[in-house]
Amino acid sequence: MEITENTIVGQLVAADYRTADVFRQHGIDFCCKGNKPIGDVCREKKLDIAPILHELEEISAVPACTLQSFSTMPLDQLADYIVRKHHSYVREKIPVLQQYLRKVCQVHGEQHQELWQIAALFTASSAELSNHLNKEELVLFPRIREIARKQAAGEYVDDSSISAVERPISAMMEEHDHEGDRFRRIADLSNNYTPPAEACNTYRVTYALLKEFQDDLHQHIHLENNILFPRAMSTEKALTGSCRL
Predict the structure, then answer these.
(1) Which residues, given as ranges, of the chain have pLDDT below 50?
(2) What are its GO cellular component terms (predicted)?
(3) CA angle 193, 194, 198 (to 5 degrees)
(4) Cβ of 92: how many Cβ atoms within 10 Å?
(5) Whose CA is closest to 104, among 210, 237, 203, 232?
(6) pTM, 2 dp
(7) Distance separating alpha carbons of residues 164 and 148, to the nearest angstrom
(8) Are 73 and 222 in contact (CB under 8 A)?
(9) How far apart are CA 180 and CA 30, in angstroms?
């Protein structure tokens, strides 16, 4: 696709996830706030758009033979991929990070008070994310899989067979915004995950893991906000509309 200042950030990342690295390097949110044109975002953040467009064009020009096309993946397969890759990652890393944060707070918290704030923010995030994943897996994703099944079978959607996905999707996206805000605060407090010069190895590993967790969360939210959720709503609407013809 042609990349201009009017290109929507989230749509570009949906088409080619490699471009996420460019946005990440320039501090541009491509997941929760990914519905804005590149030009508008650059003006808001006072960034020079020319080199950013050049970087994006360079990446897009390189053939991506192994690039997974999430935009065309069946809805049920995409939901399964998110659970398998991102939900599993969150559940695996939460206790690891909590242990590291407790240790660095005990050892370095007196000299670096921000560590206690970071730990509190991550603890709150852990609880909210755990609840969030359960709601997706038990409520929203089964509905999306049913939409995918009906689409594949050429069946229609009616009120008696499936509940509308728009309301739970809206709730999930609102929770995504909260987590995005929380991790922006963690990034600010940690100087964008930059440990102080005197930091020990545990301190450095903790910040590296927090950065990795944030990056995975960004991709996770991007796949849902910009690909899975819009496609699920449009597919359900199309199948419901067909039923009323």
Answers:
(1) 66-67, 244-245
(2) cytoplasm
(3) 135
(4) 9
(5) 203
(6) 0.77
(7) 13
(8) no
(9) 11
